[in-house]
Amino acid sequence: MSEKVLKEAFVSNLNGTSLTEISLGLSVPPFCVVGRGLLLILYYLQCGQFKCSWQGHLLLDFLLLVVPIVLSCTLLSDILLFVPLCFSALCAITLCILYTQRNNYVRQNFQDIIKVLLKAKLKSNSVPSVTVLRVSINILTAVSILAVDFPLFPRRYAKTESYGTGVMDFGVGGYVFANALVSPEVRRHCGVLQKKGSALTKQIISVWPLAFLGVCRFFSVKAVDYQEHVSEYGVHWNFFFTLAVVRIGASVVLTIFPVHISWIVAVFLAVVYQLTLETTTLKMFILNGSDGTGTREGFLNANREGIFSVFGYLAIYMAGVQVGLYVLNTRTMIRDWVKAIWSLLVTSFTLFLIFHVLQVYIEATSRRMANLPFIVWVVAQCLAFLVTIFLADLVLVFAKHLVTGSTVPCSWNFSSTLDKNKKTDESDFSSSTKDLNQPDLCLLNAINRNQLLFFLLANVMTGLVNILIDTIHSSSSFSLSVLLLYMFCNCLVMYILHVKSITFKFW
Fold first, then answer.
1. Count of helices and strands (H, E) across the chain
2. 409 Cβ partners below 8 Å, 6+ apart?
3. Local confidence band at 326 (pLDDT 50, 70, 90 cut-offs)
4. 10 Å Cβ neighbour count for 393?
5. Is the pTM of this model over 0.85?
């Protein structure tokens, strides 16, 4: 067998893993954010503001935010539970130290501190947790698309063939959901974007980079005879085309229906698509082709997975738009955010219950078709992921409440002093805000500035590594070294662009 055939077989005919393991893996990024934030607050308490070159900040963030994710997907995958347990212990110890050594509300007990905190106001011009979610999914995607070609990456984490739940199956759905959270329709409705001209026309024009990247990927893959898992999207189709079509489709739908009923549109699309799968020959066509033997003759046969799964991804996108409207709604009080987080948690739990019912009475999850169980699972998992990130940020808010003037990049910031009757130097808060808004201090902000470029760079470097290295016969130590170097190079490019305030978005 040729190396191309071996690599294609290496990522084919897989069945995925359990929801529990996927949820454990998704708990790692929020723990990383909390751990990094608590360490910075502890350092501030002991030594003052953390100041060093941007290279130092990059190295710190890479070690605390990226390396644990790479390790949890590779070396530590068989003891994955150990990762969040260790993070929990370290965070609990650090938080206890901050509480006992706090320089704020020293004479008040825990209950009184919480009461004051719930009445505190946060800056409402942005929601850092949304940024963390979007960047985390990008990082997880970047790690997975290369790691899947190495034996070090568990086969159960890779994309499933026809049915099942894999980590990478969630990745594609999560990427669509994350983009919907900050879609132009959401930002326009929340007053972030001003409506100028035709929104639909602007959306169609804005997706040309995705279509262009899809065409470039197709020709480059064919030119170098790169390995392809055809049953993912088809012969000519790829994820860039899916993103472009979903964006345009969502814009068309939202010119017809009000944006605030996006969830109704999502439910309608998902249910009608599933009914079509069940009552027609569409399901068999997607799985086996028009002749039942997996033929790829003709454009529709060749790209049936990519073309028809668009309906499922469009439903996910519309659900993401609805969540974006809810999350980006103006809230200033911490207690209001606690209520919002509780609502998201209840919704996620309800969707997981519905998902299990669908698994039993309808059919198993299929990323290949993007069927109703897949849609419900992705939305439920994304909401659970978002809730854990919100909770992580609340922990950091509590820690900053204990240590006056402390700062954490890409985290909520107080809009004013917490207690007007308490003698606190307000200059501490104003200087904290100034430091917090410096864009050069956080890898999360760096990747967030150029997320599409980060995704493209990861794809290009994945292709180069596969061309230059025999990945499927690489040792564990060599594989891990390549993955860490690959991720560091991606992060370094993003960080340099961020330091120089360069944004690659001119369309």
1. 23, 0
2. 40, 436, 441, 442, 444, 445
3. very high
4. 25
5. yes
